[in-house]
Specification:
- The protein is built from 10 helices and 7 strands.
- A 7-stranded parallel beta sheet has the order 3-2-1-4-5-6-7, sandwiched between helices.
- It is globular, with a radius of gyration of 18 Å.
- About 45% of the residues are buried.
- The protein binds nicotinamide-adenine-dinucleotide.
Length: about 270
């Protein structure tokens, strides 16, 4: 069902890799709600070509940008404003990557160059987007920026290794920049802490199925799907949430507030 929540709004959506990506669903829902936007991803991720299908469906322009490159991000904002015909109302940061996780490195045996890369790609990139946007005065007043996080920022989770610190940094940047940009231009910045979701980044974590099943059985509402996450993100882009900022918002079926559920208790015997 569509409510026209984003009618007339201009956005930038990063991170749509394939149809399982959370960003893919956000793009589809934003389109349904009346937004126009550009899509962006790392040039290397474009090789798969999947994003072209989404761009066609959404009448969106694709602007390649490595999220670690300030130069690429500047071009992303300048070209987006030109294509969309004005300042940007919303930005989705849906970017995460850890070579340590990809290579199966344990927390006690991390490669520090890769660790720095994880922080740069998955967290600092949010700061870079916000700083570029501020310097270019690219965001409409009362604009909304949302980045996706995970509860491993607050609790230890097996095998999430350096992404744990990346998510903690991401949430911290949302708070610090949320204060600055809120004061300056009424722009809000939030993170959405999403349930385990079956995407390329999600299933790349060893033991992902256990994460997924455990969270599902702990949560009174069950895990939130990528589609449900997109619904929530759309409300944060809309004018219905104009006083929500600097928050880490759990979108997890209740998982973050549960001690133990009947399902898990039964398994303990
Ligand atoms: N899947 C889950 O279980 C889960 C749970 C909570 C939060 N998240 C977060 O959601 C976000 C989106 O991930 P997803 O699950 O949709 O997986 P995904 O693999 O579909 O998306 C991750 C995206 O990051 C992009 N990316 C990687 N390096 C980049 C770079 N240098 N520049 C620009 N883009 C780059 C990838 O190309 C990809 O599109 C991530 O921040 C992830 O940590 C995922």
């Amino acid at each position: 069902m569509s409510y026209g929540l984003l009618k007339g709004k201009r956005g930038i959506i990063s991170g749509a890799l394939d149809e399982n990506s959370i960003a893919w669903k956000v793009a589809q829902h934003a389109k349904e709600e009346g937004a126009i936007f550009t899509l962006t991803n790392a040039p290397i991720a474009m090789r798969m070509g999947e994003i072209n299908k989404l761009a066609e469906q959404c009448d969106a322009k694709i602007i390649p940008a490595d999220a670690t490159s300030v130069e690429d991000i500047e071009k992303l904002f300048v070209d987006s404003m030109e294509f969309l015909g004005g300042k940007i109302d919303f930005v989705l940061h849906s970017i995460g990557m850890s070579t340590n996780i990809r290579k199966g490195k344990e927390y006690g045996d991390l490669n520090y160059d890769w660790f720095m890369k994880s922080l740069d790609v998955s967290a600092l990139s949010l700061h870079k987007m916000l700083q570029v946007a501020e310097k270019l005065d690219a965001l409409e007043s009362h604009g909304s920026v949302v980045a996706l996080s995970y509860i491993a920022a607050q609790r230890s989770f097996l095998d999430y290794t350096d992404m744990t610190q990346a998510k903690a940094m991401l949430e911290s940047i949302a708070r610090s920049y949320g204060f600055r940009y809120g004061k300056k231009n009424g722009v809000r910045v939030n993170t959405v802490s999403q349930s385990p979701t079956k995407t390329s980044a999600g299933t790349g974590i060893s033991g992902f199925n256990a994460f997924f099943e455990y969270a599902n059985q702990m949560s009174p509402l069950g895990n939130a799907s990528a589609d449900e996450c997109a619904d929530y993100v759309v409300t944060l882009f809309s004018d219905l949430t104009r006083k929500v900022t600097m928050q880490n918002l759990f979108h997890d079926g209740g998982f973050s507030c549960v001690g133990i559920s009947e399902e898990i208790a039964a398994k303990m015997g």
